[in-house]
Design brief:
Structural class: alpha+beta
Largest sheet: 2 strands, antiparallel
Number of domains: 2
Order of helices and strands: HEEHHHH
Strand content: 5-15%
Strand order of the largest sheet: 1-2
Length: 142
């Protein structure tokens, strides 16, 4: 009779899964292993990738407002040399550069940022009046 040679390997379940999957286990909250035919199947339930959001208290600071189309148009005007001439000739405001034009806009429209033009109706309307007057001036109308 020929002796039967049996080789047995044993691992702790956790070690076996770690050998099979590597670092994937560190990012899961649950797993399940099963044999399906000739395949070893490991189902992994990942940790929630987005932690629950903390509710902001009502006293928290408002998020920064983003500028939109009006802010972009205002920024463009501030860098336009013709607009600086328009301010001098039609508004009596002498500014030498984009920073001066920006400062004038902030003061003139009562805003803290050109981005406010997209969120505050009254300053937006005032800006559009100035912008329209500038366009007419550019076309030769006084």
């Amino acid at each position: 009779m020929t002796p039967l040679s049996v080789h047995r390997y044993s691992w702790l379940q956790q070690e076996a899964i770690e050998l099979l999957l590597g670092d994937v286990l560190s990012d899961c909250r649950q797993w399940q292993i099963r044999i399906d035919g000739d395949q070893v199947v490991v189902d992994i339930v990942p940790n929630d990738p987005t932690p629950p959001r903390k509710r902001k208290s009502k006293s928290s600071v408002e998020p920064e407002r983003k500028g939109g189309p009006l802010a972009r148009r205002a920024s463009f005007l501030c860098t336009n040399a013709a607009f600086l001439r328009f301010l001098a000739e039609k508004r009596g405001v002498v500014v030498s550069d984009a920073n001066g034009a920006k400062a004038w806009m902030l003061q003139q429209f009562g805003i803290k940022s050109r981005g406010d033009l997209d969120h505050e109706p009254a300053p937006a309307a005032s800006f559009q009046e100035v912008e329209n007057a500038y366009k007419l001036w550019m076309e030769g109308y006084d």
